[in-house]
Predict the structure.
Amino acid sequence: MTSKHGDRVHLSPEDHQRLRELRREKPGRLGAQHAPSRGAVIADWVAKTVGSWRFIIIQSIILGIWITLNLIAIINHWDPYPFILLNLVLSFQAAYAAPIIMMSQNRQSEIDRRHAEHDYRINVKSELEIELLHNKIDALREQEILRLIQIIERLSSHLAPDLAVTLAAESAAAAHEPLPERPIPANAIG
């Protein structure tokens, strides 16, 4: 993307091609490409619910009630002290919740990957567009400088013809060009 001198930025043919492709795609305007399946929606809901403080607090309260009722034996001991039934229920919950949460995380990582790729394409397009703008601004600046130099040369030839010849001689010597003819001042004729 940079020239040999390193001070000017030019787009390579590959960059121009890529910019044309990105302009056709319009990556900034792409939206959601597909709706999630019913299983994906359920997995997201389970992950959102199980991963919340509300769930943890409610589950802790239920576990506390379960243990308290079994310890004080208000109702017949349906799960005595080692709480084997409670362990079975919690193992059952974990056995089903973990894969569902993993499905949700995998789906979310795929969504994040697509978003990152999308952002990358937008950033590349922006970078290439900015480089083109820099090139255009540099070209305009060069044209303006050349125009100003021409104006200065014309003014100096009208105001101080001898100085203009000296400057032309110096620039010609630097560029190894032949000296231009000395202009004749308008007031010297006639």
In short: Residues 13-182 form one domain. The mean pLDDT is 81. The chain has five helices and no strands. The helical segments are 13-25, 38-50, 53-72, 84-159, 161-175.
